[in-house]
Amino acid sequence: MSESYLKVTQVRSAIGAKPKHKGTLRALGLGRIGKQNTLPDRPEIRGMLRAVRHLVKFEEQSKAEA
Question: What is the pTM of this model?
Fold first, then answer.
């Protein structure tokens, strides 16, 4: 079984963003432009990414790459 991960990078500033979006970024382990985090590919993480899709970019990775 190969568990997959998501490599998430913040690409835009949270200045002017809604407080809920800022909280979502913090929950994803982000906070500054260029900061990256590797997270498990789960539905709740995907939902968080969908909420802040205008501030981040992400790519899928396998466990070997993570």
Answer: 0.88
